[in-house]
Amino acid sequence: MPKTVYLKTPLKSSDLTGLEIGDKVFITGTVYTARDAAHKRLVQLLEKGEKLPFDPHGQIIYYVGPAPTPPGKAIGSAGPTTSYRMDPYAPALMDAGIKAMIGKGERSKAVIDSMIKNQAVYLAAIGGAAVVISESIKKSEIIAYEDLGAEAIRKLEVENFPCIVANDVKGNDIFIEGVKKYKR
Amino acid sequence: MREIHTDDIISSVKKLSIEANYYLSEDVIRRIEYLKEKEESGTAVEVLNILLENYKMAAKEKMPICQDTGIAVVFLEIGQDVHIIGGDLTEAINEGVRQGYKNGYLRKSMVDDPIVDRKNTTDNTPAIIYTDIVPGDKMKITLAPKGGGSENMSEVKMMKAADGIEGVISFVVDRIKRSGGNPCPPIVVGVGLGGNFEQSALLAKKSLLRNLDEPNPDPKWEKVENEILEKINKLGIGPQGLGGRTTALAVHILTKPCHIASMPVAVNVQCHAARHKSVIL
Asked: Can you give the pTM of this predicted structure?
């Protein structure tokens, strides 16, 4: 049976070892946003041996490009984008200390192998539940690459941000196991 | 001859951009509620419940259902007795998109150059506009915001007549199988059959505009739609690809005559936020 787990950032390896695919996770703390264009720049910095705009150790990256913030809100609609586009960059960021990624859709074998190596996890947020998710985001601040518009890196403060464990630290994959269970 | 002023076109497109992104059509909501009752996976039911809650919250808070408020795809049906006055029609559509995406706090997702620069145009223009000239003196504008995640799972294949209907069905089902959770299932699957290379893709896109409550007007194609839908929902992909029975809400087919040598087949994938709104001027 899937369990419900409450996580606080920054994450430690011991926070993640007990997680299993299908578990419901609620995150409270800091989450950094990055999509395609920001990932490209972050990995270029790592390749040059330069510092990232934030300390990646124990942190979470959320693959999202939010809608503009309407008056009176902390952020606009903010659901996940498709994760496979970040696959070429994700292992380098895990090697730099990232412990969890939030997005939607399945990951490549290289990314899953890197999760096992780095004891990191991939969490699925519900694509298209962008207003529900935005309610769990209490603060949003652009910290880098403002020129990228919706793709800028934001520092989010979240409370009980909802997601589901899609890949655990053992390399299990809900996108394989879940489908197997219901295939006819 | 009836005159339509571009000012009316601008304000209509502005309104359609906002309303299509805030308010999901009832037919989509009804279909999700119906399929939820038949869903076997507990996780899938929870996901569908959150999607239904999200549609309600979006309408109540006046926020876009999804942060990906899409490319503005605009379908025009212009009566041949209409005379457009006040300026450039294409510019009027783009101005409506510009105003709607700004005033509605919708995301600007267009880059100017597809490969090298990829610089955001900052106002979500240009729209993609398709125009049909039809009899009459009215103008119908349909705006369908189309997200990137589901669009990326779409494909055109130039098949052979020998592949037959079985070949078509297995290509469509395989395309959805390979898409997994990426296009935000439960999805609507648009299939364009016939025409030529580009017309098949446009047919697939246009098929997505059909109301989910409406069966295909041709019983022959209604049967094929149901067969493909059943096969897709046996794949086990489920909402968000996490496993379950609710992978597709509907399959829509549009067909056109084609060349003796060809059998073009296009699949256009639409996420559960199947957004489109129309107005008649």
From this structure: 0.96
